[in-house]
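Allow me, if you will, to draw on your knowledge of protein folds for a short while. Thank you for your consideration; the sequence and its tokens are set out here:
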Amino acid sequence: MKNIKKIFFSDLHSMIRNLYVLIIALGLCCLPALYAWFNIYSNWDPYGNTGNIRIAVASQDTGYTDADGHTTNTGDAILDTLKENTSIHWVFTSAKKARQSVYSGDCYAAVILPKDFSKNMYNGFMQDLKHPQIIYYENEKKNAVATKITDTAVTNLQNNVNKMYISIIVQNAFEKENKVIEETDSHDTISALLKKVEQISANLSGYANTVTSLTDANKKLSVSIDGAKANLNQIQKKLEKQAVSPKDSISDSSLLQKLLQKDKAVSDSLSLASLHIDKIKSLNKIKSKTAYYKKALAQLEKAQEQLNRITDAFQSLPSDSRLQSSYSHLLPKLEKQLDAINALKRQLQLGITAARNNAADKSDKSRQLLEKAEAACQNKISSLKNEFDNVITPLIEEAASVSDTLQKDISDALLNITEDIALLKQIFNGTKSGLSSANESLTSLSEIIGQAVKDLEEINNTIGSLSESKWLERALSFIQGNPEEYGSFFSAPIKTKTERVYPVENYGSGVTPFYTTLAIWVGGIFLVSMIKTAPNQKKYPDARPHELFLGRFLLFFCLGQLQTLIIVIGNLALLHTQCLYPKHFWFASAVASFTFLLLIYSFTVSFGDIGKALIVVFVVIQIAGSSGTYPIEILPEFYQRVYTFFPFPYAINAMREAICGLNGSDFYIYLCQLLLFAFAALILGLVIRLPFRKINHFVEKRMEDTGFM
């Protein structure tokens, strides 16, 4: 602590004793204030001087003449209104010169009203919905901000014209209604309307009687058709009794289709069993032979299962089924086939036993028994397969063919017999359906006519009561109101009431936090650029690195606070910036100065000229993306992601609290967040920089050796 005080007071004494150094130091303290003041003053009230923005305006409107011969020129009326508007410098000229002034840059924009402007204002809505147009030219090359101002001015002009347009339409509509009402006697109109309603009601009553007569005639015809249909049904039943019912044939056919599928399944199983048995003879390993014996057995069991199902299906047929004769021929052969399968299964079991014996006993006798068993299996499966394919399958297919033929003959006979009857029934059904639909339509029509007669009676009573009611007088009174007042109301039916929260007197006060923060940072850059950040270590041989760091920083701190005090006093006393809490504003500025200077000083001491370059980069990023002028939400995504890692936003927000009004403890929260950067700067200057001292010294030496750095 002793060395820190020694370094600080020595620096302060040296600066005061040297007039040249003192003048430079005072200049460094004033320069940031000038930077802030000039920027704040230049932005003091930019939108209050928009009267100097030149916008050319011209009207080619030829006017509009209504049916009564009255001529109106809306374009001239708009020009007269703009002449009284001083918020923009309107330049009144011809259409050609207006366009030329935009291209030449004499005016920032131009507004031209076309020839049919008035015509479309008064007549476009009633005829072809043609919009009145305002032709707008803008010069975006001359100035980016001026374009936004001219856009706003023309938008306001468009809104005013829209209000005028709505006002004209409403005014014309009510004027025409007034004329109609004046020319018409309401009582005579109601009497004529009553007569028309009574006449329509009488006509509808006559139509209702006619509809009732048609409905009665249709009912009598429908009864006759029902009698004819009953006779046809009796004839059809007699034919059905004499005809053979196709039910059994259909059932038989369905059964035989399934039998053919099972027959194919049996044939496939026998084929696979034959392949497995043929494979046995070509194998040498007993284990493989046994496996194929088992596969052949499995296929035989499947074939046996399908044959049993075929037998069960035939047995389930009714006693009078035409397939019973086929079944009586087929049953013995099926039983013989099942016996053959059982015999083959026993032979396969013998084959499995012989294979296992041969595995245990390798004698010639055992081998001969195995070969004999294999040959017997092959013969039996071959015989079984031939018997099934050449005897069983043809019998099943023959039964299916007979059943299909019988079914087709019966169906053809029934179709030929009942064809005419079905046609007659279809004709009768169509006729009755048509009569039914006609009756429904006539009934609905009769109900509609009856309801219409009732509604007309109610309308008649209502119209009759209108002449005695005050409602008509009120309606006529409303329509006969002042058209100009109605036009004014409908052109802007909703009024906006603005409640200002944390109001700011002018734009300059609004940007004061940003330019004050920026001036404090720039002041810190001036100080590290003009004053050495490292004391002469030879002058303080016993001083430790942190004492050298803090001892010289105290001088920077005092000069920075002086810079801040000058900036704050100038903002409040010279520019009269709005500030509800001046002490809070000064305190926030002082904390910002301390934090910024500590950051700038730490980077410079730690990294030398590279550190100075880094703090310049930091200020460039923060100028663009600190939300000091534009909301952070409309800036590019990069700034939205990184701006919270820089100190500017917190200093700006704290100053805004002091200028516009405090909200709870937000002011102190922003300052605490800002001081986190001061803590990080201390870590950098006292700890992190130590390993970089030799590298910085080496870089500075090499730069000095170049002779121009």
Observations:
- DSSP finds 21 helices and six strands in the chain.
- Strands lie at 54-59, 64-65, 71-72, 89-92, 109-113, 135-138.
- The radius of gyration is 55 Å.
